[in-house]
Amino acid sequence: MVGRWTLMSSSPGSTYASKNTKWVTHLALSSDIILGGADTQNNIHEISCTMDDSKGQIHSVKLNVWARDTPEQGVYILNNVPFATNPLRLGVGDVATMRRVPDEFDGSEPGSPCLPATPIELSGIAVVASVDEERKSGLLKGFTYLNKGHQWQPFTFQATFPDTPKYEAWKIPGPRSLVHFDATVIEEGPHHILQTSLIRVTLLDVAPASILQALGITNTTTDDRAKRIRQAREARRLNQDTNVEPPHASTSGTTDAPTTPVMTNTPMGPPPIETTPSLHRATSPTPPLTTRKRARADGAVAA
Fold first, then answer.
1. For the chain, what is the domain count?
2. What is the pTM of this model?
3. How far is CA 177 from CA 15, 162, 180, 207, 224, in A?
């Protein structure tokens, strides 16, 4: 199923900036966003926008869209728009896909009816770069195609399962895995990496070597499974070492020689016969056997 999605680069050494490069990964964003001022050139609009995460933190993001007219400022609803995180950038293919919220429901006037704020939802396909020991949190990376101007741009974010009974048995696949995911943005963490709450993750396949090289995931010889195998071998070796008894040391400080009997080639005779009188029984003499013919002969002589 994954084979039809896997698009390899034209050359292994090409980078994400190449126009001929095509990657299997992508990242899409769905949320409401506030459009600000735009920098327009040749009908290409670079718009400064803001969006709020689950904790109320404001994120500044650039939105790139082609349109004959500059989009009006206000609140818009975006659905599955290509999204890059380094830096935060959105690539809208058609301005008609942006749904503008009417001023009567955008929440600008206190006490007026408004639509509830939606969380920042992320979905797509990514490569698992690393996971923690419990495999409840992992770093996901990949490339997403924005538009003809920006081409492929990288994305990186931290995905963690919520600490709830629903996700108690869920695990993130090991490093170098290609996964499909759904997550919501919680906040911006250290090094400007988005911290997300992982809703769903599905293992697709092992990531191609070309995208691992482009993402800088160079540790391609070991993964979580190999680590567990090494741990099992080490535990087995330690168990064998503890089962071996050390040689006994004498009081003089020297090691006693082993008491294992030495086998020789000398033939051994039969075991000695015990001559204890109490163990022997007296045997009575056996009378001779007589036959009827002998008795007849004796009777004839007597007559």
1. 1
2. 0.64
3. 20, 21, 10, 5, 11
